[in-house]
Amino acid sequence: MTPSYPEAVFASNGLARFSPLLPRLSALADALLAENEKVNLTALRAPEAVWLLHFADSLLFADLAEQTGAKSAVDVGCGGGFPLLPLALALPETAFSGLDATKKKLAFVERAAAALGLPNVATLPGRAEELSRREELRDGFDLAVARAVAPLSVLAEYCLPFVRIGGSFLAYKGPEAEAELREAKPVFTALGARAEDLVLRRLADPADPGKENVRALVVVRKLHKTPPAYPRRNSEIRSAAARLPCGSDIRPADE
Ligand code: SAH
Description:
The protein has 255 residues and is an alpha/beta fold. The protein has one domain (62-242): Vaccinia Virus protein VP39 (Rossmann fold, 3-Layer(aba) Sandwich). It has helices at 5-12, 22-35, 47-59, 62-67, 84-90, 103-115, 128-131, 152-159, 177-190, 234-242; strands at 72-76, 95-100, 121-125, 141-147, 163-173, 193-202, 214-222. α2 packs across α3. The longest helix has 14 residues, at 22-35. Bound molecules: S-adenosyl-L-homocysteine. S-adenosyl-L-homocysteine binds next to β2 and α7.
């Protein structure tokens, strides 16, 4: 029997161990595409694209998230729930918080987490650079993850204040990762952290085997407390990033 697209996409990306999640992910795909008729949660319209570019992409580095041994994690700018929801399904022992400035996206995340029976998902509405000033959230997480939110040097300032000393920040990136990493290194140092690894993988599409979808995970370790001057106001973070040699392409929160 020919495998379904979801089975094929998991098999071709080394994600077969997550096949017990397929029924719940199918329900999530249906809910996401239905909700997308009302609220703009994703630019993707076809179920296959959701499986490849949201589900497989979110899980492509789940092994590295798992290896951190994190008991708590924050997904900064989780939007409609990526990588948050697939990671929370894959790592049931980790308590995840989905942070986003857009409340209506988090409303979907909450409903989806309830429908999936995911007790390990909570939400944090607000802007990252404001929430990390809250005492109970600062240095409060073993792990911060983020995908498709901002260039690395900006993202670092959004994410690292949330991470406890010894914890990790994992940035999901594409082929631009190497250049962004070069720019972001001094920012990591200023924030008390250091880049440990850049892991490159190919996201394989069984419907288009020749296509090179390069994915990267930037692995960052927090070594010291982030100085109280950080994070700066968003306008300052952005203008500092704009002064970097390559400039920047910051996607603002779409409240
Ligand atoms: N991570 C998701 C969503 C990416 S879109 C995915 O990969 O599909 C970027 C999201 O980041 C938007 O939902 C936007 O509201 C949020 N965002 C951008 N800057 C933010 C900030 N400073 N604080 C909180 N959320 C932010």
